[in-house]
Amino acid sequence: MKRHYIPVTAAVPGVNESRVAFLRKVIRTALAAEGVDFPCEVDVLVTGDAEIRDLNREARQVDKSTDVLSFPAFDLRPGELPGPEDADPGTGLVPLGDMMISMEHVAAQAKEYGHSIRRELAYLTVHSTLHLLGYDHVDEGPMKRQMRAREEAILGELGITR
DSSP letters of 119-134? Predict the structure, then answer.
């Protein structure tokens, strides 16, 4: 039995079982790297720019598409984790939150940055997972540097480099 439940909904074409398995592997690797050793749930929606724009407008009052949106279930700080008391009594899983990734942005940013779609998808997935665990990058200061260092370390564990 898998310790983490990671349902992936694909609202765009081209998201095959291999890509879904990759997303789950990236999330599990990020969770393990951050010490999440309890059963949890992360819900993923892979979509396009129009849908992510709608949600960005509704949730953040920003009327533009973006690459990834993260909706943490808890207000954490890096290094803090929810406890067993936060588990859903029906499932026994701690709901960490939801992420939404735009495959249109993934493809465009991969091209812009000169690397593969796989690398960009992994980066955004790690980035979002860290947001669910309390990391943020509201400024160019130490929090952003801390988040970037964790992203690169986790991508390194996956064998994904620039």
Answer: HHHHHHHHHHHHHHTT
Give the span between the Cα atoms of 143 and 46, in whole angstroms: 27
Q: Return the pLDDT at 140.
A: 67
Stretch (H or E) spanning 32: helix 17-33
Q: Quick check: 81 and 35 in contact, CB under 8 A?
A: yes
CA distance 29 to 159: 11
CA–CA distance, 130 with 64 (Å, rounded to integer): 23
Question: Contact at 8 Å (CB) between 135 and 143?
Answer: yes
Q: Would you give the distance in Å from CA 14 to the centre of its chain? A: 19
DSSP conformational letter for 86: G
Residue 138 has pLDDT above 80, yes or no: no
Question: pTM of the prediction?
Answer: 0.94
Amino acid letter for position 155: L
The one-letter amino acid at 93: L
The Cα–Cα gap between 124 and 127 comes to 5
E strand or H helix at 157, and its extent?
Answer: helix 142-157
